[in-house]
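S.,

Sequence below, as promised.
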Amino acid sequence: MNRFASLIGLGLLASTSMTGIAVADVTPEAVIAHYADVAEAKFGDALTSARSLDGAIEQFLADPTDETLAAAKAAWLAARVPYQQTEVYRFGNAIVDDWEGRVNAWPLDEGLIDYVDSSYGSESDENSLFTANVIANPSIEINGKVIDAGTITPELISGTLQEAGGIEANVASGYHAIEFLLWGQDLNGNGPGAGSRPATDYSLDNCTNGNCQRRRDYLGAASDLLLADLEEMDANWKAGGAARLALEQSGVAGGLSTILTGMGSLSYGELAGERMKLGLLLGDPEEEHDCFSDNTHNSHLYDAVGIRTAFSGAYTRPDGTELTGPSLADLVAARDPAIADELSADLDATVTAMEAMAERAENVEAYDQMIATGNEAGNATVQAAIDGLIKQTRSIERVIAALDLGSIDLEGSDSLDSPNAVFQ
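The prediction came back faster than expected:
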């Protein structure tokens, strides 16, 4: 007998699950299927919000004013909410992880794309395309080969510019490329203020900073490419889609391991470590995730919400509707109620700490100010969220043990495991 099926056979399940689902439905197979259903909903919502963003960008390009630029920015911010909640699917699902860099890679050397302030510098020992500025240059040289960039298309961005020269910092596509094109550089360091690109950078009648037609072409192409990438992933999670099939074919133990790998790796190595602790150790505003828009607090918050959803099975869609079903929380409660309660409490505590960080960002100071060296109150607010992520990872590890899933490698981070290495 499958060790997970034995949960029912031994009478270990309560009459109803933690979410009120009938006992017969709380099987490992049902939990995995619901996890895939939530993925389909989340990626569908990310696609829908990206379509709204694309529409706002089209309106902005048709009439580039301060008002239409503000509307495009608002649409970008709204689009981040459902997308960030999908990141828990990245680790463990190879199809998602292989694709993610096309839509959410960071940090980026923005000089590849457009003009930058002189404080940015003019060259880099690590990146020959540090200030290539493809918007200003119809041809650029990559690894000794002259590339025709006369027409800016989605294909040029994805096939030639993205990670050009094999350098990860050459991020040419995705949310953050669009963010830079809407906001421009944030030149405020650890001081208040986000990027402040003028709408006239896209005006054909009153062009500022030159190359406005090519800049318009780039923004439109980048938005089209984001839609195409999200359409691909949305299809991958529908019935018969590649991601859903891969999950189904991994079996019960493989499916449960996938869920927990995503939760633990995003909690610890990626979010607590690379996205948060590293910036806090360095006090470096360039280490914030949404660095042009000062939206990092929300991106971190919705990552944490997404992790909690992977356990609870409860997802709130942008229109306010609730999607619930058989959850990992139900399955763990049947095996060890104390551990289920422990992880549920930890996940709630982390979201609460993230909400406190977001409230501070909205009312006191932005995230890049919070991580500044010497800002004790701001540092403490960020560290509280990091501590929550670390604590919930330890509980995730106990869940892995309780479900007899063997050894699962969760992502680590030098920022957490060997902080001195960060300064070497």
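Residues 28-62 form the longest helix (35 residues).

Coffee later?
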